[in-house]
Write a structure and sequence with these properties.
With about 80 residues, the protein is mostly helical. Helices cover about 80% and strands about 0% of the residues. The two termini are about 35 Å apart.
Length: about 80
């Protein structure tokens, strides 16, 4: 259990493990909302699952996360 908590702490904090990483928190929230909306539209609203739309949405989310984490590594490396 301690290893899982340590992993989550390192995932959602900056390099000092105390300051919250707002980019990672927002990214995880976007992924959660995206998954919830997809399931809700398919099950509760009885819409067909759109594979193309899901792929484009997931690609946009992952592309934005890649840019976010790429910028984060550059900014952390410049300070040292």
């Amino acid at each position: 259990m301690k290893k899982i908590l340590k992993f989550l702490r390192e995932l959602f904090t900056e390099a000092d493990n105390h300051t919250a990483d707002i980019g990672c928190v927002l990214f995880c929230m976007v992924v959660g909302v995206y998954c919830f909306c997809s399931v809700y539209a398919t099950l509760a609203l009885d819409q067909q699952f759109d594979w193309q739309g899901a792929g484009v949405g997931a690609g946009a989310i992952l592309g934005g996360a890649g840019i976010l984490f790429g910028m984060k590594k550059q900014s952390e490396g410049d300070d040292e």
